[in-house]
Amino acid sequence: MSVLLLVRHGQASFGAADYDALSETGYEQSRLLGAALARRGITPAAVLRGGMKRHEQTVAGLLDGARWQLPPAQVDADWDEFDGDGVLEVLRPEFRDRSVLANHLAAAEHPGRAFQALFEQATDRWRAGAHEGEYAESFRAFGSRVEAALGRAARLPGTVLVVTSGGPLATVVSRLLAGDDSLWGRLNPVMANSAVTKVVSGSRGMTCVSFNAHEHLEHDRELLTYR
User: Fold this and answer.
1) In contact, 185 and 27? CB cutoff 8 Å
2) What is the pLDDT of residue 16?
3) Phi, psi of 177 (to 5 degrees)
């Protein structure tokens, strides 16, 4: 049997020049999670991560907090997030000019909510599959690579820590709970940064036994973020 601890990366730098880098809050979220896992006596046999900067920096924060002495994390780019910018730009090509998007959001009463509404509209169109040729990676192709990454991780023995993003996590959980991607649109927006989803792989296959656990953040509401 193997146990997969699937971690969503810490908060990225929304609105900054390099979104892919963790914010200060994102690094602290990661450090607190590492410390919490270590206090529970958890030491992973292996660490996997996607190939994005926010995945790498989240692993660094986890190791800082836990003080684990482990081999370097294995990189599996199939755990990477989908191209959110590209999906949004297919819906609204004018947003390829970031100043147009910034002005659009600045004019909204609640910019964060306005962006979330746009993003969900864009991902709904992407997931529907009727316009696959317009995307660099279709939703179907995205799901296939995430499922392949999950299968590889599940073949590793012991407790395996995987650092990934919200989109892949929503795919994993929806397919394990519903057998398809029907829950993806409901799961993706509610995952907290640095939250842990636990999947057990045994003789009966894979089972999701917990989702979006973020107790390590609940002492400070300022640390609880979702994008």
Assistant:
1) no
2) 62
3) -85, -40
Which runs of consecutive H residues, i.e. helices, occur in the chain?
24-39, 53-66, 84-91, 98-106, 111-128, 139-154, 166-178, 184-187
Is pLDDT at 53 greater than 70 in this prediction? yes
Q: Does pLDDT of 15 surpass 70?
A: no
Cα separation of 201 and 186, whole Å? 24
Q: How far apart are CA 227 and CA 212, in angstroms?
A: 14
Of 78, 75, 40, 83, nearest in space to 58 by CA:
75
SS3 159: strand
> Residue 202: what are its φ and ψ, rounded to 5°?
-145, -155
Between the alpha carbon of residue 43 and those of residues 29, 71, 162, 169, 172, the distances in Å are 18, 12, 13, 22, 23
3-class SS of residue 161: strand
What does the alpha-carbon distance between residue 215 and residue 37 come to, in Å, rounded to a whole number?
11
pLDDT of 17 higher than 80 = no
Average pLDDT, the chain: 95
3-state SS assignment for residue 152: helix
Could you tell me the strand order of the sheet in which 158-164 lies? Answer: 74-75, 46-49, 158-164, 2-8, 196-202, 205-213
Please state whether the predicted TM-score (pTM) of the whole model is above 0.85: yes
The distance in angstroms from the start CA to the end CA of the chain is 32
Q: Helices in 50-97 by DSSP H: which ranges? A: 53-66, 84-91
Question: Residue 221 has which token pair?
Answer: 């509401």
